[in-house]
Design a protein that fits this description.
By secondary structure, this protein is of the alpha/beta class. The chain is built from 7 helices and 10 strands. The radius of gyration is 16 Å and the shape is globular. The model has no long low-confidence stretch (mean pLDDT 95). InterPro entries: Class_I_gatase-like.
Length: 189
């Protein structure tokens, strides 16, 4: 297992104590190295032939830094290195795991694929970003409704997705959904 991140400047830096952007500038690779305790490499160094699968964690950083979904929605662009990584694994018929908001990367890069970001309606206030499902459909992909503790496997494309924090749910349910995604990725590897 190796961890990679793009060597690019973050779109913005949020002061999570105040809940607002700060004037500070940070680099995605440097910030990811802080979280990974330094055990990380530049995404440009990732070679698909050296790995059995790839998994993209989610989080709002994906929508801001790996693509421009946070600003442009379905009209977003995907970072060139993220795009080429996804394309390389897909071309090699190796599984791709995506959770939280990161399934939008597959929806943008692989028209016609199947993904989940949870539900397409804000059921009981648990899915405040349910409109993402319709944006995925507008990109020509199929959104599959799943509960937070589940994942969806697009067998034709070897793409496994789960909604994670796209659902307001207890952490143990989010953990279970991510666990099923990882298990399904490993089964396809």
């Amino acid at each position: 297992v190796k961890i990679f991140a793009p060597n690019i400047e973050q779109r913005d830096v949020v002061n999570h104590l105040k809940g607002s952007p700060s004037e500070e500038k940070r680099n995605v690779l440097v910030e990811s190295a802080r979280l990974a305790r330094g055990n990380i490499q530049d995404l440009t160094e990732l070679k698909a032939d050296e790995f059995d699968a790839v998994i993209f964690p989610g989080g709002f950083g994906v929508a801001k830094n790996l693509c421009s979904w946070a600003v442009d929605g379905k009209n977003c662009t995907v970072n060139e290195h993220v795009n080429s990584t996804l394309q390389a694994f897909h071309s090699a018929k190796k599984p791709i795991g995506l959770c939280c908001i990161s399934p939008v990367l597959a929806a943008k890069v692989f028209p016609g694929c199947e993904v989940t970001v949870g539900q397409d309606k804000n059921v009981d206030g648990r899915f405040p970003d349910a409109e993402t499902a319709s944006a995925i459909a507008e990109l020509g992909c199929k959104h599959i409704c799943k509960n937070v503790n589940e994942s969806h496997v697009d067998k034709a494309n070897k793409i496994v997705t789960t909604c994670a924090f796209m659902c307001k749910a207890p952490l143990h349910e989010i953990f279970d959904g991510i666990g099923t995604m990882v298990q399904e990725v490993l089964k396809l590897a």
